[in-house]
């Protein structure tokens, strides 16, 4: 067929077959953003609900995710069929960077974006140009920053009590008050410890490991817990390979000297390559074996002379090497591979240096742990390196059931990230919806001073914030109209007051006095993310999909 002679009669293609425009496109945007926001709308607040998502794990195996965390819900959807709608993909991608950088506030950004889009499209349908709405929203977001400046208080990285309040506020979900208070204290202790080691600058929250389990002793350890468990082969019923459950540490070692290695224990040619040595007789082979055994014994003698009590290896040791070390009374903790970062964390905790060759061990590369002991927890062995000098922590938290372990670990890990954010930024604001209420109240007084139709957009921004507050109240079983009205009255005097909602009683409350506190950056970034995402969505006046099956559309978004 001569493609050059083919002609397409554009009149034969109905416009509805390849595009939707104007009012229809705006309704499409409105409907899609509402559907995406509905995934997380009911999760907002301490009384938010969980979502059950049938998806696939990273090995492409079927998986069921039960979570009230917006980030996990969106990631689960993307691992499954994903957001196949182009507008939905654009919406989710707009908040993706917030999830990756902050790890909190995603649900707020999504719901607030949806409210801004809904209110903004109402104005467009009433004849306001989208550009006027975008400008008005930008003015409102800038004004919001000024209100938050007035609301904010300083948070010192050494202020354990204020950091405890931040951590407690962040722990939404099915956590009783006593447990929340205990974990918040431990989170605050860990964050203060991190801050002390860095003079309050950037805090490496990777040095606080959260380990959740059933029936465990919940407590904060200053050090590292190395978790080891049977490999998949060792778990098989008919496997001849068995996991060694025998404790390598008898009782508790006090002030233990620790050596850390991240590669195979190798002794050169005699240990690694018969091909480089001519073995002309059984005597030659026996001499090589003897030489290898001598090198192993000399290595163990040298570590013993250095006073090493525990030898930690990222790789699995051969039985002969292990035996040589154990004969000198040196406990061996090997196969520290999952995660590999545990080797580096253990070195930072004990003050050791990670060594890659057997000849590099000397007094200067060794570390010390105040206490070392080993525990068996269900299907794992824990080597606990505790009371270390380095600012590295392991927070053990308990869950009632095996199915709740992952969610409890997520809740506490999120609290650590949020408390660290407050310590790094040195700024917090009252929670309980107080920032949204204060900004909305200020915008209603500010709007009449704005000339042109942008005034309507400023008022719409205030309405959207109150829509968000209504969702917060509704998720707690309160009447959203009554709740928003009460907050309007509380902020009627025009000051940047810290009044929010007591979600148990429905009454307004001073969030500072109620100890409901959050980092300033989370709400600030949620507002900015919602504004920028709304700007993209409001300016869509046509959705084109020539020759594209929308059901197969799969954008590349950046969730892990």
Q: How many domains make up the 3D coordinates?
A: 3
Q: Tally the beta strands.
A: 19
Q: Helical stretch count?
A: 17
**Fourth CATH level, the homologous superfamily of the largest domain:** GroEL-like equatorial domain
Largest sheet: 7 strands, mixed
Name the CATH class of the largest domain: Mainly Alpha
Rg computed from alpha carbons, rounded to a whole number of angstroms: 30 Å
Stretches where pLDDT falls below 50 for ≥5 residues? 1-16, 269-277
Structure characterization notes:
By secondary structure, the chain is of the alpha+beta class. It has three domains: 24-153 and 430-540, GROEL, domain 1, CATH 1.10.560.10; 160-212 and 404-425; 223-389, GroEL (3-Layer(bba) Sandwich). It contains 17 helices and 19 strands. The chain has helices at 22-38, 70-79, 86-102, 106-125, 130-151, 160-170, 177-197, 232-235, 269-272, 282-305, 319-327, 341-350, 405-425, 434-446, 454-475, 480-490, 520-538, and strands at residues 19-21, 51-56, 62-67, 153-154, 208-214, 219-221, 224-228, 252-261, 310-313, 331-333, 354-355, 367-377, 380-388, 393-399, 427-430, 499-501, 508-510, 517-519, 542-544. It is elongated. 45% of the residues are buried.
């Amino acid at each position: 067929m001569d493609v050059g002679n083919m002609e397409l009669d554009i009149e034969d293609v109905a416009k509805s077959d390849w595009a939707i425009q104007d009012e229809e496109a705006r309704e499409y945007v409105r409907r899609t953003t509402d559907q995406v926001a509905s995934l997380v709308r009911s999760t907002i607040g301490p009384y938010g609900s969980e979502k059950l998502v049938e998806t696939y794990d990273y090995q492409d195996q079927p998986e069921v995710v039960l979570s009230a965390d917006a980030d996990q819900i969106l990631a689960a959807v993307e691992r499954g069929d994903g957001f196949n709608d182009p507008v939905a993909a654009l919406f989710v991608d707009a908040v993706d960077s917030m999830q990756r950088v902050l790890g909190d506030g995603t649900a707020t950004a999504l719901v607030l974006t949806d409210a801004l889009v809904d209110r903004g499209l109402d104005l467009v349908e009433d004849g306001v140009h989208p550009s006027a709405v975008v400008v008005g929203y930008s003015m409102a977001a800038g004004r919001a920053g000024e209100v938050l400046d007035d609301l904010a208080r300083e948070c010192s990285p050494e202020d354990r009590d204020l950091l405890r309040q931040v951590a407690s506020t962040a722990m939404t979900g099915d956590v009783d008050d006593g447990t929340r208070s205990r974990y918040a204290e431990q989170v605050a202790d860990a964050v203060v410890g991190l801050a002390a080691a860095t003079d309050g600058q950037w805090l490496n929250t990777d040095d606080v490991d959260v380990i959740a389990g059933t029936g465990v002793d919940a407590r904060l350890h200053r050090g590292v817990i190395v978790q080891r468990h049977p490999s998949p082969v060792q778990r098989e019923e008919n496997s001849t390979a068995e996991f060694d459950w025998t404790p390598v540490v008898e009782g508790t070692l006090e002030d233990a000297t620790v050596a850390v290695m991240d590669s195979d224990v190798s002794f050169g040619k005699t240990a690694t390559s018969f091909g480089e040595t001519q073995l002309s007789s059984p005597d030659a082979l026996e001499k090589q074996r003897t030489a290898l055994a001598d090198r192993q014994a000399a290595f163990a003698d040298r570590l013993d002379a250095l006073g090493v009590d525990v030898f930690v290896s990222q790789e699995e040791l051969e039985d002969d090497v292990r035996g040589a070390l154990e004969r000198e009374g040196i406990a061996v903790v090997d196969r520290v591979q999952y995660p590999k970062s545990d080797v580096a964390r253990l070195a930072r905790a004990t003050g050791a240096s990670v060594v890659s060759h057997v000849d590099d061990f000397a007094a200067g590369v060794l570390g010390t742990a105040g206490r070392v002991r080993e525990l068996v927890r269900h299907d794992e062995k824990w080597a606990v390196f505790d009371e270390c000098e380095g600012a590295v922590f392991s927070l053990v938290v308990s869950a009632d059931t095996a199915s709740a372990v992952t969610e409890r670990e997520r809740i506490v890990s999120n609290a650590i990230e949020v408390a660290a954010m407050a310590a790094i930024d040195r700024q917090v604001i009252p929670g309980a919806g107080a920032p949204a209420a204060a900004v909305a109240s200020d915008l209603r007084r500010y709007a009449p001073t704005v000339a042109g139709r942008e005034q309507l957009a400023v008022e719409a921004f205030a309405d959207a914030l109150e829509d968000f507050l209504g969702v917060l109240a509704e998720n707690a079983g309160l009447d959203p109209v009554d709740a928003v009205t009460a907050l309007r009255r509380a902020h009627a005097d025009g000051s940047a007051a810290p009044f929010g909602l007591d979600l148990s009683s429905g009454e307004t409350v001073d969030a500072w006095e109620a100890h409901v506190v959050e980092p300033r950056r989370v709400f600030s970034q949620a507002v900015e993310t919602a504004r920028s995402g709304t700007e993209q969505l409001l300016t869509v006046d046509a959705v084109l999909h020539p020759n594209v099956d929308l059901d197969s559309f799969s954008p590349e978004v950046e969730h892990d």
